[in-house]
Amino acid sequence: MLKLGIIGCGLIGKKRSIAALELGDRVIQCFDPNPSSATEIASLTQCNVAATWQELVQNPDIDVVVVATPNNLHAPMTIQALQSGKHVICEKPLACTADESAEMVRTAKQHNRILKTGFNHRHFPGITKAHQLFTEGAIGDLLYIRARYGHGGRPGYDEEWRGKASTSGGGELLDQGVHIIDLCRWFMGEISEAYGLLTNHFWKKTSLEDNAFVLLKTTGGSVAQFHTSWTQWKNLFSFEVMGSTGYLKIEGLTGSYGSQRLYIGKRDDARWRPVEELIEFPPDDISWIEEWSEFKAALSEGRSPLGSGQDGYATSAIIDTIYNSCRTGQILPVPQHSL
Fold it and tell me: What is the enclosing helix (H) or strand (E) of 84?
């Protein structure tokens, strides 16, 4: 049984708490600057409320700290938790910059602790199945990836913490784009070049991008193209992997994004058109439980988890490169570092 501390008692902190409880773990303590949010998690999990996050990370009864706060707090909280001997799962993005992410990964190694980045999208069953089929060679060699991901926000969205550069570190690219980048790396391998265009056409109370248009390229020549948006009229998730003998297309993420569906297309030379198989998945979002289960297994086995700190750093390096590309108007190389 793992003993947890939860920093950040909003929606994601609650999802993490519920997943841990369902898998037999215990929340020891929680903290949130909003007392009502902390009280809600405390009531749900029967845990104590810490007076400060520093008190929580120093609690000797805690094994694992969950950091589910605004992005600007990820690095200092995670680093201090690791220095206090805790394993950490930090929500995406791992940090606001690649430099901060690198420091977090190095701290985990220095203290022999496991750092995981919260990349729950790898654990949606449609995406997991697609990756399995891809690695088994079901669609041949990779040609390219094409993805779209977006939502429409809500009134006042640009005045929340995600709309402020000081707390979020970036706009929609850093918000939902980080998931797409992580999935691209998972399927494609390391990204060597990046190019991006950012716009702000609607959410005018923020200086951050509400749309991001991105091209990524691997050293092997495969390309990914994606668009993430805060101005999507109807919530949308679509991830397509095109191969030399077929394709995989994942649509939906449960909830407001619609049920998850996996389309498997195979070439039919006799008819000169693909034969398509559809797998539909149950409407419940099991990604949080699946991710927590894999994280527990990694801790038990002393190995790197799926969606590691290194993976979080790599996505940060790509995002930094995309932001720099937008400023210069150039295709830029992505720094390659194994920390």
Answer: none
- Domain of residue 67, CATH code: 3.40.50.720
Counting residues of the chain whose pLDDT is more than 70, the rounded percentage is 100
Structure token pair of residue 247: 């394709």
Read off the tokens for 285: 């979002």
What is the per-residue pLDDT across 96-106, written as a single tens digit (0 to 9) for each? 999 999 999 99
Please check whether residues 22 and 159 belong to one and the same domain: no
**Mean pLDDT of the 142-150 span:** 98
The 8-class DSSP code of residue 56 comes to H
The identity of residue 80, as a single letter, is: Q
Dist. CA 40–CA 132, nearest whole Å:
38
Residues 6+ positions from 49 with CB-CB distance below 8 Å: 29, 30, 31, 35, 38, 39, 42
**Does residue 271 sit in the same domain as residue 188?**
yes
Does 100 share its domain with 152? no
All residues at 6 or more sequence positions from 65 whose CB lies less than 8 Å from its CB, including other chains:
4, 5, 6, 7, 56, 57, 77, 78, 81, 86, 87, 88, 89
With a cut of 90, say whether residue 35 has pLDDT above it: yes
Mapping DSSP to helix (H, G, I), strand (E, B) and coil, where does residue 332 land? strand
Describe the strand order of the beta sheet including 48-49 as a list of residue ranges: 48-49, 26-31, 3-7, 64-67, 87-91, 115-118
Q: Is the pTM of this model over 0.90?
A: yes
Answer yes or no: is pLDDT of 174 > 80: yes
Q: Both 128 and 115 in a single domain?
A: no
Question: Residue 339 — very low, low, confident or very high, per pLDDT cuts 50/70/90?
Answer: confident
Is 158's pLDDT higher than 80?
A: no
Q: Which are the contacts of 221, defined by CB distance < 8 A and separation ≥ 6?
A: none
Q: Is the pLDDT of residue 270 over 80?
A: no
Q: Which domain holds residue 227?
A: 122-288+316-333
Cα gap 128→25, rounded to integer Å? 24
Residue of 217, 174, 168, 166 whose CA lies nearest to 198: 174
